[in-house]
Amino acid sequence: AQPGAAQPVAAPMRELSWGQLNFLHTTDSHGWLGGHLQEPQYSADWGDYVSFAEHMRRKADEKGVDLIVIDTGDRVEGNGLYDASSPKGLFTYDIFREQTIDVLCSGNHELYKADAADREHNTTVPNFKENYIASNLDYLDDNTGVLVPMAQRYRKFRTKNLGLEIVTFGFLFNFDKNANNTVVQRVEDTIREEWFQKVLREEKPDVFVVTGHVGLRMPESRAIFEAIRKQHWFAPILFFGGHVHVRDARRFDDKSYGIASGRYMETIGWASVDGIGKRTEDDEVAGVRGSVSFSRRYIDNNLYGLYHHTGLNESTFPTPRGQGVSEMIDRARVSLGLDYKLGCAPRDLWVSRAKYPGEGSMYTWIENEVLPDVVVRQDRKDKPRLIITNTGALRFDIFKGPFTKDNTYLVFPFTSKFRYIPDVPYQVAKKVLPLINRAGPVFQASLDTQFLNVPEAMASKKYFVATDDEDGSDEGSFFELKGPESAQRPLGGVEAETAMSVPTPQLLAGYTTEDDMGTDGDDTERSPIKMYAVPNCVQAEVGFPEEDGRPDKVDLVFIDFTQPWIIPALKFSGGDYSDADVEQWDHETLTYKVGEWIRKNWDGDC
Ligand SMILES: O=c1ccn([C@@H]2O[C@H](COP(=O)(O)O)[C@@H](O)[C@H]2O)c(=O)[nH]1
User: Fold this and answer.
1) Ligand 1 proximity of 74 Cβ (cutoff 6 Å)
2) What sign results for the dihedral spanned by CA atoms 377, 380, 382, 387?
3) Mean of the pLDDT values across residues 57-62?
């Protein structure tokens, strides 16, 4: 763990079970290679994970079984370790490559910006060579002008100890907000491609492993499963998903299962599979291959748990390589000045653990306190304005106490700036926010308004029920598990606040996941947390007339990411606006503006 990271706390543990094939899985790490310095549940770092994987490989060898290490993308954006350097990721690519990863693929965050996609092609792919799979992703080489596969489309390999043959793919969901140096082919089109069909016709592996930056319950995962199953009735198919930032496991059928392993290096996914027979020519005819048994654990990424699962301790656990990686991270963090204190947060501010609107909500804070102060222009200061940001732009909680340079990137990882349309009739402008939040048919399918929300909402909306609030209103609904089809309840602080069950007092609050396999997936017993839904966007009203609160016209200011939704919402509200009417508000990023606000307003002692 990093110097100064919170010490892990002892808790009741569930064991890992081993099978013929065993997997360690990370996804959506978003640069959190230093771990969570403020949260004991997740305070181990990438160096500890390197040590852990080394021990688990040795154990696999001793047992005569196999271990495969997987990462399913979104390795970048969301932590100072990646975002604070120039160029971005100056240290993280070298740190990340220290883990031996057998299969990896790209997430969408590797592709938002052209320079990140270049680095993916020129650094990550060569770092991992044939282990990097890009089944539906191409890269446009600037030097040659030629569109080439980002990496190989699939990989076939034999496992070290049991000699099982694996065919593996690496998919990205149908993402369309990539920079123009990559092309993401829709999954539904890719699985119809000749190369994919040829693999299915010609290869007869013992098991298919589908890695993907795709939610397990997104339609893309189902489509891949059906395409493989159509031609391989009895083959085990294992999915390793990501993107929606949740812990989840899904049973596709009695020979096909998947795991999704959370976000931000909070979780190391563990999956083990038994019942994989060597495939014979007659299998498909006779249907002789029985069910596979699948077991999963979501390992909280802290040293208490990693020691427990390896049977080691403080002196025997760190390997020279793992220790070296922790030191690399420390040096990088120091040289980037990530612990530099901008101010002192006077209270906790939550993404989803507090009701919106409300005192503890990050979004109430941003719309009431921050936006009115930071979205100001001298030449338009007397014009009333509406200022809109999407909620997904604020990604992580703020804990009471020191707010560091690192925290600015954890909370506001994007380089978004503000744009505006001047002098919009208020009667038109005021309808934009409700339209976006109600997500009506105004928006085409490609403009799903959930893309404005925090990624967790994608899973939550589908698999959790938003129930009425305790006070009978439907404001600030919270999620309650709906049944075995569900995904998760994330994240931990130190106190357990819940209406869903009686917490065990000494347990830290954290993940209490329910998935298709039941409620025993988390490796550590935690007390549950209530999670509240947040709207897609929030809005500040600034400079409105005091008498009736209804100006004639307003400047409609919005964060640039929301523009594709703002324009159709305006049109639907009777405003004949297009992209041509949009002007840049100023040239400062939201991240910079909030950092400056914190410097001025949170200048207490802590
Ligand atoms: O410039 C951006 C890019 C993304 N967002 C928000 O992030 C999520 C997607 O996050 P993943 O980690 O890829 O799941 C998207 O839905 C937006 O809400 C943003 O605000 N600005």
Assistant:
1) yes
2) negative
3) 98
